[in-house]
Design a protein that fits this description.
Blueprint lengths: L1 E8 L6 H11 L5 E8 L16 E5 L6 H5 L8 H6 L7 E6 L2 E2 L2 H16 L3 E2 L2 E5 L5 E8 L11 E5 L2 E5 L8 E5 H8 L14 H6 L13 E6 L2 E2 L4 E4 L3 H4 L15 E4 L7
Parallel strand pairs: 1-2, 1-4, 2-3, 6-12, 7-14
Antiparallel strand pairs: 4-11, 5-14, 7-8, 8-15, 9-10, 10-12, 12-13
Amino acid sequence: MKITKNIVFFYNENRFNYLNKIIDETNNYQYETDIFIHTNNIFSKDLLNTYNNGNINIVYYNLSENVFLTENPYYFPWVTRGFMKNQKNDYDIFIYIEDDIFVPKNTIKYWLDYKDKLLKENYNLGFIRIELDQTGNEYAPDLGIPPDNSFKPVLNKKIIIDNEDYIINNINPYCAFWIYDKNEFNRFVDSIFYDPINIIGYEPRETIAIGLHGTKTNWYKNTVLPLENNKLLNSCKIYHLPNNYINEFDSNNKHIDDPKSWKPQLFTEILKL
């Protein structure tokens, strides 16, 4: 079993600490994992932490040669599609993340434990993106509360699949991360959705990071998360390292710059059964 982890890194010296946290955790993965850092600026591997669980490869793109990208760099992730397509016969597991998404070792095991039984029924295994405040409280920014506090988005639609309980994430399954086995990735490559122009409902950068489970992509029946004693598993969590969504709100839960912004809610409050 061999993994490819593709990371989009729009060059910023202040974000090497995120890359290195990702590298350190990937060192702990059960299977050999090659890391590919897709970047718009050449840099030395000396800036990266030691890695022993595979190879680290820096994939450089000269954006100045593409007018489309110089006018809107948020389209930069689109150029990774061709590179990943060429990997389709070389790996067993395919991961795409943004450069500030931390995927723990136990989350890979979680995916391995559930993905086959869900794919058999055409469901997508979900994850919850987490941000931490200074006291360690966990928030789910992708399941935010509107600024007028008119309602709290909650997951409350339960389903039984193969005699196991799951909750449906029919609110917002986005988490800036996707993971597929070889068969599913090859189906993806051969589909119309590998061309990001056919994935609708998202901004340019998010169009790549949503994979096949976008709310307007007709691929899976739904995105679901397993329940144990009517609770979400800790291993469904991935982490947004900058914690910038929660940090953009003051002590009165008011957005510092944009009063129309939705605010993250506590992870413990997103599930209501």
